[in-house]
Recover the amino acids of this structure.
């Protein structure tokens, strides 16, 4: 079975102490994950080691970074490289979250560089894509997200694309309380898989987890994750409440 993943994105929330308490609260539930299930916590950089050590003994629980820089190393004050993350034993990293695309002017080309650096450093990128509201209203979301994949991922050879995780996050659903309907989610996830199949073939397309993100909550996760081409979720707001994220992990197929 394809990997099924509950990924938390804390964004710029929680003090260190609140973060520790949140992790403790989630782990207290002692949810045992099956071989094909993962729980990933994308936390602020200063909390990576704490999170990594909290999940060390837990099967299939991982700490992730929310970003890395698109250059290898050098005079980029305040930035964090993929190599630095690897040196901390961090094995997952969000790449191209829509907030970074918007506020940090990240382009598809820069994201392709980040993807390469993650892979060179044995880090699995969770590549975020998704359209803004005006694109959805114009009905051109398929072309929009296909271009994001093509420009940031499709330079990869088949053996490398296999290790990517994709998160489809319609921007109009992030933090707004509006979710895509299950029909909308299934339709575009299926489309994304077909775009990958067109380039790399069905076997590879069927292996790549595609997460849904955008106002996933404890009370809608099961329904969304139930879609055939949805392999779990990338979760912002609801990942900050232990009991909510516990229910979201439990909703994985
Ligand atoms: C996100 O930040 O990736 C996200 C999906 O946020 P929320 O769950 O709050 O919509």
């Amino acid at each position: 079975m394809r990997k099924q993943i509950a990924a938390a994105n804390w964004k710029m929330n929680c003090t260190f102490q609140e973060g520790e308490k949140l992790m403790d609260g989630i782990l207290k539930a002692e949810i045992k994950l099956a071989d094909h299930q993962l729980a990933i916590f994308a936390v602020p950089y200063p909390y990576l080691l704490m999170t990594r050590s909290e999940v060390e003994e837990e099967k299939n629980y991982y700490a992730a970074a929310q970003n890395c820089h698109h250059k290898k190393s050098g005079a980029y004050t305040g930035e964090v490289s993929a190599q630095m993350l690897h040196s901390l034993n961090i094995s997952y990293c969000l790449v191209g979250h829509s907030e970074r695309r918007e506020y940090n002017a990240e382009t598809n080309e820069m994201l392709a560089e980040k993807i390469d650096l993650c892979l060179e450093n044995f880090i699995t990128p969770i590549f975020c894509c998704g359209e803004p509201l005006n694109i959805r209203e114009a009905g051109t979301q398929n072309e929009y997200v296909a271009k994001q994949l093509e420009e940031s991922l499709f330079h990869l050879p088949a053996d490398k694309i296999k290790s990517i995780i994709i998160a489809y996050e319609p921007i109009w659903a992030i933090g707004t309380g509006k979710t895509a309907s299950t029909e909308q989610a299934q339709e575009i996830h299926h489309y994304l898989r077909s775009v990958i199949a067109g380039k790399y073939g069905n076997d590879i397309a069927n292996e790549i987890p595609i997460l849904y993100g955008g106002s996933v909550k404890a009370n809608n996760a099961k329904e969304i994750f139930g879609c055939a081409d949805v392999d779990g979720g990338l979760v912002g707001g609801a990942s900050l409440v232990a009991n909510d994220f516990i229910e979201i992990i439990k909703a994985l197929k």
